[in-house]
Write a structure and sequence with these properties.
Length: 171
Amino acid sequence: MLDLVAAGSISPGAEDVAAKAQVGLRSVFRHFKDMETLYREMSVRLARDYALWLVPYRSDDWRGQLRETINRRLTTYERMMPFKRAADLHRHESLTLREENERTLAMMRAKLLTILPKVISDDGLTLETIDLLLSFDAWQRLRTDQKLTPGRARAVVETQVELVLAAATKS
């Protein structure tokens, strides 16, 4: 399933998984009770890619930690884009995918709140804007819909976060 999604198949079915694994369809369902179980296993394996986010920061100040957070997120988003898009397609039908999405968003938000100084995290508008700019949705739009290169998309995110911070710390 992971290989199929990585190769661009956004919604492979059990038949596709069986063909890729060179096994019969029954073998797929001997290992996985149903597609939900397969999604759960996929989520567990992909969660390992978020391990980069748990590495301690090199920087001691919040601005440096925020730059590291931006780098970690954007690097992960680029690598995970096909899997995230596939998960988003099936989230409405999968409790596992909905719960994983909610857990990931909550973890990302909590991590951001530990980095930002109180004056910024208490400013609802600034916090929501930074959270949006650092979201997978923003990255996907820049990369897919606006067709920006990874470098150009990164420059947009970094520049906009700096502008938001400058405006917030000026007032």
